[in-house]
Amino acid sequence: MTTLPTDRNVRSTPQGILWEPSDRWVRGVKGEVTVVDSRHPVLVWEPGVQVPQYAFPRDEVRADLLRPAARPPDGAHAGARIFYDLDIGAGPLANAAWTYPGRDLAGHIAFAWFMSAGQGLDHWYEEEEEIFVHPRDPHKRVDALPSSRHVVVEIDKTVAADTRRPVLLFETGLPTRYYIPPEDVRLDLFRPTDHSSRCPYKGLASYWSWHGDADVPPNILWSYPDPLPAVGTVRGLLAFYNEAVDITVDGTPRQRPVTLFTWALLNRA
Q1: Quick one: which of 68, 79, 202, 255 has the most CB atoms within 10 Å?
Q2: In which element (H, E) is residue 262 found?
Q3: Cα separation of the two ends of the chain
């Protein structure tokens, strides 16, 4: 039978949880201990949560390191039936793992992702590549395309960047980001900061803040010095938050978008 491009292997539980088998080899490590080593993971989308999590067959998890949670939370993770603390001998990690209700995911255990309020494992790997923040969504695309568009970035009517050789990064659900060679950015108008962030699709970002008189959120400019291979064309280039600067593309001003980053930008100290 021919599978149409629009067909997906996503299933739904009576509790409103979406899930999909994955063919990736996934491992999770805490300290020196491999807690998860799974070749049959399942991606899970909880109601109201934009990004997926993984759940794993119990026999591909170090279940001997799990203890019934001493203080399970209320109402988290779509009404999970059982929470577990993870104990590898250095003090338990509270509510580090849980099961989902219903028959569909019976026998599977999910884990808090790394850096999740101190609950998660230290490192996660898909095949031999380390991944960060949350599992990658197979239904999301991130494409970085070299371009010859004329991109001008202004802050308080000051031209901060002007290029005809940007790389345009198209990411599902977000506005187009314009990555600009450093030679085409007025870096004298910015100061590097110690802020950093991780993206499961792009890697580790470094940041700069505007140091002029304009009322501009900090860490408005960023770069990926060593991006993940899939977006290697943005290496060393610089991008601005469209939400807080004025961008003109081929002579046409672009409207500032409202995104999930807007509130955070407006409320940064």
Answers
A1: 202
A2: helix 262-266
A3: 56
Average confidence (pLDDT) over 105-111: 94
**CATH code where residue 98 lies:** 2.170.150.40
Q: Whole-angstrom Cα distance, residue 9 to residue 22? A: 10
- Helices and strands of the chain, counted as H and E runs: 1, 23
pTM attached to this predicted model = 0.84
d(CA 26, CA 131): 10
pLDDT in tens, 61-102: 999 999 999 988 876 665 567 999 999 987 888 999 999 988
The domain in which residue 65 lies consists of: 11-131
Residue with tokens 């292997």: 9
Integer Cα distance of 161 and 57 in angstroms: 50
Separation of alpha carbons 218 and 169, rounded Å: 22
115 and 224 belong to one structural domain: no
The reply to whether 80 falls in a domain is yes
Number of domains into which the chain is organized: 2
Question: Which DSSP category does 15 fall into?
Answer: T
* Final residue in a domain of this structure, among 83, 109, 131: 131
Residue 120 near residue 111, CB atoms below 8 Å:
yes
d(CA 40, CA 141): 23
Q: Is residue 4 part of a domain?
A: no
Amino acid sitting at position 139: H
